[in-house]
Amino acid sequence: MRERRIIGWDIGGAHVKACVLRAGRVEDVAQWACPLWQGTVHLERALQAARERWPFMLQNGAEHAVTMTGEMVDLFAHREDGVQRIAELLQRELGASGAPLRFFAGDAGWCGADDVAKHWEHIASANWLATARHAAMALDGDDGDGLLVDIGSTTTDLIAFRQGRVITNARTDADRLASGELVYHGVVRTPLCSWARRIPWRSRSLNVMNEYFATAADVYRLTTELDAAHDLYPAADNAAKDLPATRQRLARMIGLDARDASDDEWLAFAQAWRAAQVAELAEQLRRVVALHGLSAKAAIVSAGCGDFLLPDVMRGAEMNGPLRAYRQLLPAASESAATWAQVCAPSVAVAALFERDAR
After folding, report:
1. What are the pLDDT digits (tens) for 341-356?
2. What is the C-alpha separation between 355 and 359, in angstroms, rounded?
3. What residues contact 173, with CB distance under 8 A and at least 6 apart?
4. What pTM does this model have?
5. SS3 sequence, the chain?
6. Distance CA 346, CA 359 (A)
């Protein structure tokens, strides 16, 4: 009898993330760029890359647990259409061999492909709930409140939990945008013009050019905080990602050229953008803490490729509780698997929840 493996999938609009879990241990985690708004062929290519990495994934003993946010891309007529089309593609690519395929439907539990149409509203954009629910359960029994803070390439999730349960009543993106629990700020794809109306430069404050000249990746490439493995998308101008090209894109945000200042000045400029993002995330964190009556000493669980910002965000929000990395919640087969589990937390979480619920 083959040992059971669960593959957790997080199907996003820009990335596909997947985790192989066996007997409660993270064996491997991977991420592929998937510009789904350009066509479902990109999802098919990501799945093919996964098959090449994990030849066993369509064999006996492999099971698939899926969460998604990709239904939001403008390829689809509406979110219901997106959920159903993604589910149909996954059933065709993953479930045709007979491997069990289940979709995370949040409060409605798990469902097969045949029931996706009935539960699409629970399935849509529920990956944050999987991560937060897993973190809450893993820390159940610890004293006090907790917060998941997942800072990704595109968005940040701020989710409160207490006594092993996620305590927000918000379930849709619209409701979470209203509460501050979803913030469209990430460390790779976010356009800089969305961060601030004005930005410090030398001794003055300047209006920001509202053009797609630069992204978050340019800031964190210059500060050396962004891992190149997470920098999967082309730059805003489709030019190189070396430091001179990065400085040139940042300069455009205030109508200048890279040659108009020194390298040190452009680094200081990147730090000003960083400070603006930290301030925004800290404000949203304070909002969520107040909304749920959390203590300043609430434990924080960090996740995402932008987790390097969290200590400064916590200071800005005057949060001084313990900080714990999501990667610590499950054993991993290697340091690489643990590192990628931190970045691809929803795929790990959906696999772990499915393993627990299927016992």
Report:
1. 999 999 999 999 999 9
2. 7
3. 72, 125, 182
4. 0.95
5. CCCCEEEEEEECCCEEEEEEEECCEEEEEEEEECCHHHCCHHHHHHHHHHHHHCHHHHCCCEEEEEEECHHHCCCCCCHHHHHHHHHHHHHHHHHCCCCCEEEECHHHCEECHHHHHHHHHHHCCCHHHHHHHHHHHHCECECCEEEEEEECCCCEEEEEEECCEECCCCCCHHHHHHHCCEECCCCCCCEHHHCCCEEEECCEEEECCCCCCCEHHHHHHHCCCCCHHHCCCCCCCCCCCCHHHHHHHHHHCCCCCHHHCCHHHHHHHHHHHHHHHHHHHHHHHHHHHHHCCCCCCCEEEEECCCHHHHHHHHHHCCCCCCEEEHHHHCCECCHHHHHHHHHCHHHHHHHHHHHHHCC
6. 20
How far apart CA 216 and CA 221 sit, in angstroms, is 8
Between CA 359 and CA 354 the distance in angstroms is 9
- pLDDT for 278-319, tens place per residue? 999 999 999 999 999 999 999 999 999 999 999 999 999 999
Q: Which residues contact 111 (CB under 8 A, 6 or more apart)?
A: 102, 103, 105, 118, 119, 123
Instruction: Dump pLDDT digits (tens) for 167-218.
Output: 999 999 999 999 999 999 999 999 999 999 999 999 999 999 999 999 999 9
Instruction: Classify burial at 136, counting beta carbons within 10 Å of its beta carbon; exposed 0-12, middle 13-18, buried 19 or more.
Output: buried
Question: Looking at the domain that runs over 5-129+329-357, which CATH code has it been given?
Answer: 3.30.420.40
